[in-house]
Amino acid sequence: MNNNQRFNAVVKHLKTLNEKLDRFERRLIITDSEEKKFELETTIKEEILPRICRYEAEYWELYPQKYMEAIIISDDEAQPKLLQIEQAVESIEHIPNTEYPDELLLLLQDIRAKLNDLDKPAAAQLKVAVPLIPPIVSYELEMDTEGVMYKTWKGISNLLKRSEMSSEKIRILEDKKRQLEKIKDDWEKSKNNWEERKVGYEKDFTITNNVFRKFEAHKEIKICEAEIKKCEKEILVFQKQIEDIDRQIDEEKGTIYRFINQRFNVVVKHLKTLNEKLYRFEKALNISSSEEKKFELETTIKQEILPRICRYEAEYWALYPQKDMEAIIISDHEAQPKLLQIEQAVESIEYIPNTEYPHKLLLLLQDIRAKLDDLDKSAAAKLKAALPLIPAIVSYELEMDTEGVMYKTWKGISNLLRR
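Above: the chain sequence. Below: its structure as tokens.
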């Protein structure tokens, strides 16, 4: 089996495993049995995710170099991802009393060497580090590290997939397609003009009794018909060229990058199921007269349903199509008070006394502060950039004594986005 055949096989394995992950996550959402939940969570963590990571590592090792070079990532986009990788490496290295497998030690040394290569720009450093991250994640899943590298990898995967969609080669093809569409439109306008002229001459031919004028009208009609056929022929030629370019663009995007759309649709389904479950539990809570039952329902909502909704909402906004995000209209006047509320919510979490924060939460708080402090962006752009981080912070906040300030802020922002 050559590299190309193995690459296609790996793509198929990843598709199958991601579909299996979708099924197991869905069962986990709808089941009420604690025993079944534990069984599903164990299978996901110990079997499905490690296998996905192993195949993703092989996928990026086999990924054609010409396609990797075509992926456009700016140094500004890559720099925070490199910082997250470095922090994730440190979080693994600093686990006390841990004996690391030799393979993991070599991976950590290798990725540090790639991060410290000062001769390469940030984007190039990120690209060469990519194949090493999934195998580190597969080890991390067996260790007590809060899954920092796994969450970092999900963000990098999304960046790679979005960046690939706008690679230089695709942009060139799309520019060519636009030029051809303009020429085709010109021919269609010309055809419409000739058709209008033909209608005029046909009218003259019908109403005139003058033999000479009839002859002239008939001659002009034939000229119009010839020009219309010529236009139709040219329109078909350019339509075929446009269709050929569409096929080339689809080929360039590659099979694996359709996973981002598939995963987005999966996340939408999970959110729908979870929100329906939340509605049922809230309804049961409203009609229940048993204090014990109310406590049980409130606990399930706060500790299970809402954190899961937040995790999927974070992934939803991370995967949200860029063109659709750009189409969301939020004025700076609407965004400014929301940014202030986010800043106040971040402060309310940071100032809780005697609190040991999970490392991932610290990274999220740093990241959202950096986005809020970006003076080059408008208020609306800052809010959009912060979106994927807020529900992720909320999922931690639900476990802490913060009066749910970020959660309430997020509900307000969600309502604004839906409007």
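The chain is about 80% helix and 0% strand.
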